[in-house]
Amino acid sequence: MKNLIIIIALFLTSVSSYGTDFYVAPNGKDTSTGTKDNPLETVKRAQELASAGDTVYIRGGIYTMRENQIASYQRAYAYVTELDKNGINYFAFPNETPVFDYKNIKPANYRIVAFLVKGDKIHIKGIEVIGVQVTITTHTQSECFEVLGNNNTLEQIKMHDGMAIGVYMLSGSNNLILNCDAYNNWDSVSEGAKGGNTDGFGAHLKKGSVNTIFRGCRAWFNSDDGFDLINNAEAVVIENCWAFYNGYTSDFVSRGDGNGFKTGGYAKGRKPYDDVIANYSPIPKNTIRFCLAVGNKQAGFYANHHLEGNYWHNNTAYKNRVNYDMLNCLALNPTDFGTDGPGWNHELVNNLGFAAKVAELANIDKSRCILKTNYFDSNNTAVTASDFVSLDETFLTAPRQADGSLPNITFLKLAPSSKLINSGTDIGFPFKGKAPDLGCFEFDGKN
Questions:
Q1: Do 148 and 117 touch, CB atoms closer than 8 A?
Q2: Residue in 295, 349, 346 with CA at minimum distance from that of residue 325
C-alpha cells in the first residue's frame, strides 16, 4: 500500500508539472473557456484563469487595444495589461505573430504602459507591441514594457513604430531581456517633439535589483538612446547587442541625445549629493561586451558623466560621432560629483572602431584606466576598410535566425587577412586561434 501511495503521488506531481494551456485570439471572447477551439480575447483574462506553471498561447493577428481594457490608473500611469501572477508563460503560438496595437489608447494626461510585469518567473515570447502613444506635452514618457518583478524573461519581442520606450527596468533581480528589437520609436508629442525620453532599452534599477542582462537585442531609430543606464543603482550586463541610428527618426531627422550605449550617470549634479549617496552608492560598474554601435548621432559607447568606471570588452564602433566617449564626473565627493572630467577607472579591452565622424576615443584619463589591446592603443596599427569583409550597413536590419538570435552577417566581420585577428587579450571568453580578435565578431575562419 505504501508503494502504491508513492506511485500515485509521483504520477500526480508529473501531471501537474506540465501545467494547463490557455489560448488567446483576436476573434476570441473573454466569456470563453480559453481552449484552443474557444479562445479568450485578452491576455488579462487569460492571466485570471491561469496559475503558476501554465502557458498562455497567443494566436497571430492584430489585437487593437481599447481604452476600456486599461487595467488600472496609478499616479500618472495608465497600465493597460498588468501581469502580477507568478510563473506563467505568455508565448506566441508557434509560427504565428501576435501584434498588439495601442494606437487608440490615448487617456489624457497619463503615461501609458502597455505591459506592466509585476510578477515573478514570467516568460513572454514572440509578440509585437506597436503604436504606444504619448498624450502629455510636457516632460514625460510611455513604455511598452515596465518590469518590476524577479526572474522574468522577455524574449523575441518587437517593440516598434510607437512613441514609447521599449523595455523599462525599474526593480527586480535576475531578469533577462533576450533577442528583442526596439525600433522606429519617437515621441512626437511632448517637449516640442524632440523625443528626448524615448530609448530602445533602459535599466534604472533600485538598490538590490541585481543580475539584469540584455542579450542579443537590437535598438535602432529610437529618438533618444539605444540603451540607457542612467540613474541605475546596480550593475547591468549588456552583451551581444546592437545599437544603430539612434537619436534620429527613421528618415534621419535629428531628435534626442542619440547615444548607442549610454552607460551610467546620475544627472550630473542635478541630484543632491546626499541623494546620490543614499540611492546609488556604492556606484555600480556596468559591463558592455561584444556589442556593436553604428551611426548613432552622438557616441557609440558613452559613460555619460558616470561616477565610476565601466567594463568595455570586445566591442565594435563604426561611424558614430564619437566611437568611444568615456566622460565621467571628476569624483564621488560633494565638490566634484557634478563636474565633468576625463574618464577614470574604466577597463577597455579588445575594443575596435573605425571611421568615427569626430573622434575615435574621447574624454579619458588613460593613466587611471586599464587599457589592453584596443585599436586605439599605441601598439596597434591603423584600422582600414580592408580589415573588414563588408561595410554594408543594410545587413543590420536583416531578419533574425530561426532561434531568435541575431542574424549572421558579414558586416564589420574581420577579413581573413586582417591584422586584428589574434591580436587581443584573453579575458576568459571562448576564441579561435592563438588569441582573441579585436571587436565583437570573432573570426571563424569562414568570413
A1: yes
A2: 346
Q: Which residues make beta-bridge pairs with 92?
A: 58
Q: Is 85 a catalytic residue?
A: no
Identify which of 250, 240, 247 has the alpha carbon closest to the alpha carbon of residue 295.
Answer: 247
Q: E strands, 176-331, where?
A: 176-178, 181-185, 201-203, 212-215, 218-222, 227-228, 236-239, 242-244, 261-262, 287-289, 292-294, 299-302, 311-313, 316-318, 322-325, 328-329
**What pLDDT, on a 0 to 100 scale, did the predictor assign at position 191?**
95
Pick from 233, 248, 154: nearest CA to 201? 154
- What type of residue is 274? D
For residue 86, the number of C-alpha atoms closer than 13 Å in the C-beta half-sphere is 5
Q: What length is written for the chain?
A: 447
- The residues with which 237 forms a beta bridge, in sequence order, are 213, 287
Please state, in angstroms and as integers, the Cα–Cα distance from residue 58 to each residue in 36, 95, 96, 135, 386, following that order.
10, 11, 9, 29, 47
Q: Could you give the 3-state DSSP secondary structure of residue 182?
A: strand
Question: Which cell goes with 125?
Answer: 515570447
All structural domains of the chain, each given as residue ranges with its CATH number in brackets, are 19-387 (2.160.20.10)
In this structure, what C-alpha cell is assigned to residue 252?
A: 534621419
Q: Which of 268, 441, 238, 263 is nearest to 352 (CA)?
A: 441
C-alpha 445/C-alpha 285 separation (Å) is 34
Cα 109 to Cα 90: distance, rounded to the nearest angstrom: 30
Which has the closest alpha carbon to 220: 188, 260, 190, 193? 260
Other C-beta atoms within 10 Å of 137: how many?
Answer: 12
What separation in angstroms does the CA of 29 have from each of 42, 50, 384?
8, 16, 60
- 119 near 150, Cβ under 8 Å? no
Strand order of the β-sheet with 77-83 is 72-74, 77-83, 111-117, 143-147, 165-169, 201-203, 227-228, 261-262, 299-302, 322-325, 359-362
Residue-wise pLDDT for 201-214, tens only, equals: 999 999 999 999 99
Q: Whole-angstrom Cα distance, residue 113 to residue 292?
A: 29
Q: Which of 262, 297, 319, 413 is catalytic?
A: 262
DSSP three-state, residue 275: helix
Q: What is the pLDDT of residue 270?
A: 86
Torsion on CA atoms 307, 197, 256, 158, rounded to nearest 10: 110
* Intervals of the chain under pLDDT 70: 1-17, 378-380, 447
Identity of the residue numbered 441: F
DSSP H or E segment with residue 58: strand 55-58
Asked if 315 and 349 touch (Cβ cutoff 8 Å), the reply is no
C-alpha Rg value of the chain to the nearest Å:
23
